[in-house]
């Protein structure tokens, strides 16, 4: 994979390098869709063993949507930053917003959620796909790590 770059705008900018994808965008849900398309194209090209488009799209879409809606409260003056790094068979996904943050340690400890609720499933879902989760002290930056193996 060589270097590829889209012309940056005030609302959206992305960069691809060998084993690395970066995007920053305004807190808009339509830009989540644009980012997901680019991220999936990058990850497909990385040829991770056992890669599953659906599974990874669910995880990425959940993280980006949470950053826009819950983190930045859809404030158009705030940005979401996402990074994907692939090294050997390890995938690292980083989601960062400019919101107040949340207690990711508490959410990580949850093993089930009330089926009646329409939110609160994101971290549980990410963990169910085998991602290790950690975050910063503020709780506005989440890092997911997963090692893919040949089965």
From TrEMBL:
<dbReference type="GO" id="GO:0004674">
    <property type="term" value="F:protein serine/threonine kinase activity"/>
</dbReference>
<dbReference type="InterPro" id="IPR036890">
    <property type="entry name" value="HATPase_C_sf"/>
</dbReference>
<keyword id="KW-0808">Transferase</keyword>
<keyword id="KW-0418">Kinase</keyword>
<protein>
    <submittedName>
        <fullName>ATP-binding protein</fullName>
    </submittedName>
</protein>
<keyword id="KW-0067">ATP-binding</keyword>
<dbReference type="GO" id="GO:0005524">
    <property type="term" value="F:ATP binding"/>
</dbReference>
<keyword id="KW-0547">Nucleotide-binding</keyword>
<dbReference type="Pfam" id="PF13581">
    <property type="entry name" value="HATPase_c_2"/>
</dbReference>
<keyword id="KW-0723">Serine/threonine-protein kinase</keyword>
<dbReference type="InterPro" id="IPR003594">
    <property type="entry name" value="HATPase_dom"/>
</dbReference>
<feature type="domain" description="Histidine kinase/HSP90-like ATPase">
    <location>
        <begin position="25"/>
        <end position="144"/>
    </location>
</feature>
<dbReference type="InterPro" id="IPR050267">
    <property type="entry name" value="Anti-sigma-factor_SerPK"/>
</dbReference>
